[in-house]
Amino acid sequence: MITSRDNELIKETVKLISSAKFRREKQKFVAEGVRLCRDGAESGAEITAFLFTQTAAEKYPQDFRLISSKSEKIYEVSEKLFKQISDTTSPQGFMCLFKTLDKQTTSYKISNKKCYTALENIQDPSNLGTILRTAEALGTDGIILSKDCCDIYMPKVVRGSMGAVFRVPVIIAGNFTEYISQLTKSGIKTYASTPHNAENINDIDFSDGGVMLIGNEGNGLKDETINACFKRVKILMKGRAESLNAAAAAAILMWCMQS
Amino acid sequence: MITSRDNELIKETVKLISSAKFRREKQKFVAEGVRLCRDGAESGAEITAFLFTQTAAEKYPQDFRLISSKSEKIYEVSEKLFKQISDTTSPQGFMCLFKTLDKQTTSYKISNKKCYTALENIQDPSNLGTILRTAEALGTDGIILSKDCCDIYMPKVVRGSMGAVFRVPVIIAGNFTEYISQLTKSGIKTYASTPHNAENINDIDFSDGGVMLIGNEGNGLKDETINACFKRVKILMKGRAESLNAAAAAAILMWCMQS
Questions:
Q1: Residue among A35, A126, A138, A170 with most chain B CBs within 10 A, to mutate
Q2: What is the pTM of this model?
Q3: How far apart are CA B18 and CA B30, in angstroms?
Q4: ipTM computed for the complex
């Protein structure tokens, strides 16, 4: 049983929880909680280490067996230490180190007639997690992220996504604007959501599918990205609020495109 | 200039920020930041005290004049003390104590043909703030809250609402289920959003307006509340995610009803 913070695995885990740079270096990330660890195990993601407390193993025997069977190595951790390293206020006693999923490629094929969501410079991990969760629930075929979005492997994003991070195909585009521009040129319908000079989303025929672009919480999409798109679309605002929260806007936009 | 935490007004302000019980007792709440204080002043809400730093007064002279002109009393606070009492990480130097708006009544008239959103036991202040903001942006005619929702005057809710809390009519229903039941009996179309035995929201004709009910983040609406409604509606899920985040679901539901 591991009881000390000085243990090498514990030191690695703590750093994977807190540092995006370290996650990129190690190509690993941490997911915590019974549901998320099971979601990861079921998705086929590679588990390099499974950390658990005795109490949790006894409380969730089925999940314990499933996750153990998919893990390279398993380690019992003392209750006290688990609480110390956990990122949540009431830890459930399960934590897995996963290999990052191979999502850095831009060679992934965007298909005609399918529906995608593309995010430029989304900064709030709660928004990103919620958008991933919504995208999966509404049946999006994939998410495209600009490189400057917050890290999808941040614990808050993984948690907020309710496991969608393990299941929804994600592409991280090195040069986002250029990538969108290429899609538009190849005949994919790319829609920039922006309040300026845009068509009412209710007037758009989405039967050809396409890519819905959503921009940064404060500044929206960059002008050059808007210009690289097939069309500009907007959600009609009626009240005095000048804008919607990014995750609420994304929910409505994805709904309009996919339903 | 106030420099001490022992000042009576400062003690009151700190307690209003942290305690829902104290807010109810005093019938006051705190809003912070240039935009929110201005929104409150413009909405006609009563400002019992305006706290500002010299730097902020010089940086935002127009807002400073407007807010001062609407405030019963104004107080300069030292930069150091302002930072200490502020609920935000980068305080802008404006803070107002508002009288709570008269929203405890259930006598407010729900009109036919109009659109309302009703929330039962929403617990997350970020969700509540986002729902208020979305409701205003989409033009809802009012929000009905069950008494066990989190307090709308919590700083995180006020901030997340982007000022909508000052402008959207809110009713807090003492007996929520009973209130909804009365509405249904009086011919108002009340819609319970629930995944069970519900009609696809795309098949509903919302031309008569009505009330869209959204339940608790983990448990949804109570059975007795669902039974008190005119109809059950659901958002069709396609992915493995079993549910949407409450604020994302609310955005789609309000959009379907109001657009």
A1: A138
A2: 0.90
A3: 10
A4: 0.88
